Amino acid sequence: MGVVYRARYSGNDRMVAVKLLPQEVAADAVLLARFERELDVLKQLHHPNIVRCFGGTCESSQRFYAMELVDGGTLGDLLEKKGHLTWEFVVDYALQMCEALQYAHQNGVIHRDVKPGNFLLTKSGQIKLSDFGLASIATTNRLTAAGRTVGTIQYMAPEQIRGKTLTGRADLYALGCVLYEMLTGFPPYSGENAATVMQQHLTGPIPHAAAAVLDCPLKLDQLICELLSKDADQRPATAAEVGWRLEEILQPGRRVTAVEPDFFSPAITSTKVSPLQNITATPSDASLPAVGAFGGSSMLPWGLVAVMVLICGTVLLKWRATEARLTHAERQFVQLFQTSEPPTRVAAAKSLAEFGPLRSSTVQALRDATKDTKPEIRVAALSTLAKHAAECRWLQNEMLHIEKVDENPEVRHQAGVTVQAMKDAPSGWTIWSFLFWGFILAVVGGLAVVGSTIWQRLKPIAA
């Protein structure tokens, strides 16, 4: 739609990229409007993962605007050169993509043309989303007639192909296509012509990246499959949710690695035999038991205790890392729930419902939201409290009050569901309590076995 030049701004001697709309293209009213729309969009978006616009002019016949010069090529260029990327690089880039899309969607902008060629790369590896020529803004008039399709067919969501009204989930579908291509080296759907590709987007089976990339984490494969869902409602609600799930995959304790299952096996399954165990006791070997008091078979309990301690330590360290990561993610979703637009707030509440025990501040935020002016927010908060009924049972009287007096019937119904969930919620120990005390008992039992073994060995020596 435009021609991009490398240029120098004489005012401060800065090198920039200038996008120029040729006059023959400007004669097309729709293309001209899209160019002006792109300038308007970039002016309002200020994010490190979105290409920065320095301004321009659309007043004369020479229409152009200047933007930052990104000198590392595009993600499409990188894939053409390397073929595909490792899953760690894919997740790192995807996290940056989610940051850009979440910011755009929060500002009412749907990109509609997410693809590798529209992600610019700096030489330091930073991703920058560019080319908002097809972007739509919620508060402006449509430039695409109803039933018409615009975009790049390899990355178009089914609803985009059908010409339906789009939400941010259309961009998330395209993001799924991009992640699949980054992992495998080719887009999820291909064919001899555009019609074949579009039909596959509409009705074709969802491909698994893990089938082509054997070291792809299963959680990443599952996330991509959800992003590629034909039904937009089955995809993750927001780019922020996708980012949180990607961070989960990167947790050191949850990576899929080849060596992890064998980490403790040498201490348990080793077939190496101590030399002392090969000696046959004879009258001339009478001194051997004393020598073997701390060797031979007595090393088995020590080995078992060492393994138990290592397992407990590893589990606790991984648990603490997981808790720290989940706490950070929980705070992010609480912030979205408190500050975003209603659809995003509802999606954030649904995400919080999937967490483990919530922090007290999160419960308080949900409690405050039950008094929100918007019924859909009150319903979302009540629904999340119902998912955490056991830990929020102390709010039961408040839920009963809402069930009786709220003016909205849907809110009253959800309050009743929440009250019933609180009544039915089991009390007492949680699974974490059982695991914790189980580990403690295992360590104490192991130490008792070792102590008993040492005592039995030392008795003959003392005698």
The order of strands across the largest sheet is: 1-2-4-3
Number of strands: 8
Count of the domains: 3
Please count the helical segments.
Answer: 19
Radius of gyration: 30 Å
**Beta-strand content:** 5-15%
CATH topology of the largest domain: Transferase(Phosphotransferase), domain 1
What is the CATH superfamily classification of the largest domain? Transferase(Phosphotransferase) domain 1
Low-confidence runs of at least 5 consecutive residues:
138-149, 253-298
Please give the CATH architecture of the largest domain.
Orthogonal Bundle
**Which oligomeric form is depicted?**
single chain
Return the average pLDDT rounded to an integer.
Answer: 77
The H/E string reads EEHHEEHHEEEEHHHHHHHHHHHHHHH
End-to-end separation: 97 Å
Fraction of residues in helices? Answer: 40-55%
* Morphology: globular
Biggest sheet descriptor:
4 strands, antiparallel
